[in-house]
Backbone:
């Protein structure tokens, strides 16, 4: 504030200094003087006198300008000493981030035990004016990204947000799709368990982002609505020779705005109700063609919808979610892929229920044991192919996860859990983790 | 083909609507200011006939006591404090405070009456889309009537808003700090 209002000072001060120097220099000139007449000297004195008056006036004006912000600062805006208050959050530039590190030991194969800096995310926000801001996040997965390492560097979010009215915001850029309970709230301090649940990883491909335009509104009654147009899936990315499509059908064909094919756009909508304290109920849909102009994929179309609820009565934290995806136009494509291990499913789904209890809470510590049951299937049906060519639908996978989250400070959580899997290609496992968000 | 045409029609409709909405001139001058300080003061102390701004200056020892009582705190912005009067009788204290939501400041107010009971929290400004659910009146009214820090536990007493966790937690932490300030350095000064 003072820096801004004192900006004119250097220029004015320079003018004054030059004026004074000029006057002094003039006054100090040797009096060649012998030749100068009395009238010339009087004229010079008169000129100097006028210059001094002008400088005096400019100086007075400068003093007034400098006094104004000082007087404003004297107003009792921050009435409590700054030293008594935690932090100062008045800068338009903000930094934030989160991270998670984990240890995972499969019960059936201890040689597959891993320790991993799973995610390291730094975010930068900048407020351009009262209604316009930037939100961005840069993520490093698995610590090191190079041609010989497993890591990845990703721009997770990068969008401009504009407040249209006090209740309505617009976003343009790369943003998270409002789907499920985790996708927009995926920091490790926000969920139970060392790893994100299976359903919101394999069915909803959290962290799922697209590029586009979105509008979000909130009502006083506690209803939030989202609607938007964005890039969508590209079914021509399907790799039938790999297993990635079986692990997460949509995770294997999303584009994340990395030179995304954008001939076919998608649309999405979401509704969430939080009008009763402790309750959130919502649903969302994402729908769009997935051919992206690629030959042989003309009828490809993807729809994903889900419904979710979370309720926190007393010290309990209860949640449930159901998600279902459908890929249309797969028959002709699968005919060309017969013989490969992973054909494109027509349907996939998953659901879970979860209960947690804040058993202990003191001095910043919160201990919450939890248990979660999930049932999911990444290929619950295929379009029919000629006899003998079509693959069989997969069995539903079941997973029990039980563990504890221990918050040791606001924004820091230690985790431990055990996962029992049934009808799954994965092994049961024991996990440890630490997560943070700020 | 018909399906494709329908699909494009739907996309065009949604895209057109969102683009038109985004391009509409917006008469708002200041970011999401829902209530003025004066309106919030009279909402908190409807009987008051004047508000007198004060500058509480807790000693170092008091600051330590406040920090210990309040618990973990998010970054804060401005804080202003007023005494509410009806004639010569002091009705309580009125606070304007700012805390970080997810990334940006939330400006809110709350009153504490002469018995130490909180009023409802009012949101004056909310500056980001994420977490805007804290404006919901039902959530803000959870603070009203609470008069101890033991009854201001986030998650248990003041419910979390799923999807607005940071904003709801940080406002709760801010109110805890104001309650601690009142207990340590203002309660005894009430007349």
Residues:
């Amino acid at each position: 504030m003072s820096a801004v209002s004192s900006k004119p000072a250097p220029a004015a001060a320079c003018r004054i200094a030059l004026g004074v120097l000029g006057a002094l220099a003039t006054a100090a000139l040797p009096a060649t003087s012998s030749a100068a007449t009395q009238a010339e000297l009087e004229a010079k004195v008169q000129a100097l006198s006028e210059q001094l008056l002008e400088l005096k006036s400019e100086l007075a004006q400068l003093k007034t300008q400098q006094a104004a912000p000082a007087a404003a600062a004297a107003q009792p805006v921050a009435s409590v000493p700054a030293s008594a208050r935690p932090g100062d959050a008045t800068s338009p530039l903000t930094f934030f981030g989160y991270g998670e590190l984990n240890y995972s030991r499969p019960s059936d194969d201890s040689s597959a035990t891993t320790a991993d800096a799973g995610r390291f995310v730094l975010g930068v926000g900048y407020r351009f004016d009262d209604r316009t801001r930037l939100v961005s996040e840069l993520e490093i997965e698995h610590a090191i990204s190079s041609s010989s390492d497993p890591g990845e560097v990703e721009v997770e979010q990068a969008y401009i947000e504009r407040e249209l009215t006090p209740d309505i915001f617009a976003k343009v850029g790369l943003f998270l799709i409002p789907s499920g309970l985790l996708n927009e709230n995926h920091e490790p301090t926000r969920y139970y368990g060392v790893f994100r649940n299976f359903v919101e990883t394999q069915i909803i491909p959290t962290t799922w982002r697209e590029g586009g335009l979105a509008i979000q509104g909130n009502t006083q009654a506690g209803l939030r609505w989202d609607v938007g147009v964005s890039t969508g899936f590209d079914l021509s990315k399907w790799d039938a020779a790999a297993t990635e499509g079986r692990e997460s059908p949509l995770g294997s064909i999303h584009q994340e705005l990395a030179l995304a094919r954008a001939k076919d756009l998608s649309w999405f909508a979401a509704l969430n109700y939080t009008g009763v304290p402790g309750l959130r109920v919502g649903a969302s849909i994402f729908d769009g063609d997935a051919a992206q102009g690629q030959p042989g994929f003309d009828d490809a179309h993807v729809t994903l919808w889900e419904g979710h609820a979370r309720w926190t009565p007393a010290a309990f934290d209860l949640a449930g979610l159901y998600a279902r995806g459908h890929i249309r136009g797969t028959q002709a494509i699968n005919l060309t892929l017969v013989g490969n291990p992973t054909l494109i499913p027509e349907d996939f789904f998953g659901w879970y229920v979860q209960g947690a209890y804040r058993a202990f809470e003191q001095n910043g510590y919160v201990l919450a044991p939890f248990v979660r049951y999930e049932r999911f299937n990444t290929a619950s049906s295929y379009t029919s192919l000629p006899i003998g060519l079509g693959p069989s639908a997969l069995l539903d996978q079941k997973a029990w996860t039980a563990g504890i989250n221990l918050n040791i400070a606001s924004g820091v959580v230690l985790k431990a859990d055990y996962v029992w899997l049934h009808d799954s290609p994965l092994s049961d496992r024991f996990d440890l983790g630490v997560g943070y968000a700020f | 083909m018909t399906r494709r045409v329908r699909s494009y029609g739907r996309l065009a409709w949604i895209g057109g609507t969102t683009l038109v909405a985004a391009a509409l001139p917006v008469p708002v001058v200041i970011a999401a200011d829902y209530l003025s300080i004066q309106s919030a003061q009279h909402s908190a102390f409807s009987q008051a006939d004047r508000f007198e701004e004060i500058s509480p200056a807790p000693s170092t020892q008091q600051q330590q006591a406040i920090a210990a009582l309040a618990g973990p705190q998010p970054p804060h912005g401005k804080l202003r404090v007023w005494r509410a009067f009806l004639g010569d009788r002091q009705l309580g204290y009125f606070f304007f405070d700012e805390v970080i939501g997810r990334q940006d400041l939330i400006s809110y107010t709350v009153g504490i009456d002469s018995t130490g009971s909180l009023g409802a929290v009012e949101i004056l400004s909310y500056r980001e889309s994420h977490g805007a659910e804290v404006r919901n009146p039902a959530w803000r009214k959870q603070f009203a009537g609470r008069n101890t820090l033991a009854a201001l536990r986030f998650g248990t007493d003041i419910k979390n808003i799923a999807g607005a966790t940071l904003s709801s937690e940080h406002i709760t932490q801010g109110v805890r700090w104001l309650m601690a300030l009142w207990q340590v350095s203002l309660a005894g000064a009430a007349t």
